[in-house]
User: What shape does this take?
Amino acid sequence: MSRLPIPAVLLLALLSACSGSTLVDAVTPNSGYTLAADLPFASTPTGDPRLRLDLYRPEHPASGAPAIVFFYGGNWEAGEKEQYRFVAQALAARGYTVAVPNYRLYPGVRYPAFLEDSAAAVAWVRRHGAEHGAPPGPVAVMGHSAGAYNALMLAVDGRWLGAQGLDPATDLRAAVGLAGPYDFLPLDSDMLKDLFGPEERRPDTQPINHVTPRTPPLFLATGTDDTTVYPRNTRRLTERVRQAGGTVEEVEYEGLGHIRIIAAFASPLRWLAPVVDDVDRFLRALPPLGR
Assistant: This one.
C-alpha cells in the first residue's frame, strides 16, 4: 500500500488546522536539550498565569551564541508556548539556549500590553537566564508573524525595553523577524482596529516608524507567496533600516507562504526552505558587542 511520506503528512496537517502543531510536536526529537518549563518572568496585579516561559538549554552550547527569545504568532489572540517546541529544538540542536514565553492576548488586553510582556520576558532572560544555564550577555529576539512584530518593536522602539531598564542597542545582539507585519496601515479588520486603538495613534504602533541608526542588526525573512502578511512589510522595513544606516539582511523564500516559513523549523519539513540554516548563519556571523 502506498502512503504519503511523513513530511507531506505533516505539511498537510500544518496547513489545515491547529492539530498540525500537535503532530509536529509528536515527531520533534526530545533529545539534545534540557527543558525548564513554566518559569515566571513577570507578574500583574491580577496574577495573570500566562506570564511564564519555557527555557531550552542545549546539551552542546555553541561558543559565543546568544540566548534567543522566541515569540510565536497568532494574530495577538492565540498561541501557547508549548506548541513551539519544534522551533526551540531546532535552535537548541545548533547550540542556542531558547526561551519561549507566553504573552497576554486579545481580547483580554490590547496594545501595548503584549509588548510590555515581551520586554519583561527579555529582561528576565537578560538578568536571570544565567541562573538556569543560559549564556550571559545580550540576547537575540526572534518571532514569527505577530511574534515577529513583537520582536522587531523591541528592537526598533526603545520604549519597551527602556521600561525594563534595558537598551536595545546594548542588550540585544540582534532581531530576527519571520513573515512579520511592520508597516500595515490602514487597518481593515475590526479586531485589529480595536487592538491597536484610535486611528490617530496607530502610526506610533508601526515598527517602520521607529527605526534609528542604533537599531541592532536585523534578519528579516518572508515568503514570496505569503498572502497573510504581505512581503512588502519586510521589503519596506529593510529599506528603512538601510536608509538609517543600520545593518539588515533580507531573505525572500520563493514559493513559501505564511505558515511554511515557520513550519520549515520542524525537522521533517526542512526541505521547504533553509530557514534554520540562514538564521543560524546570521547569528553566528554577528560581530561581538565588545562588552
User: Anything to note?
Assistant: Residues 113-128 form the longest helix (16 residues).
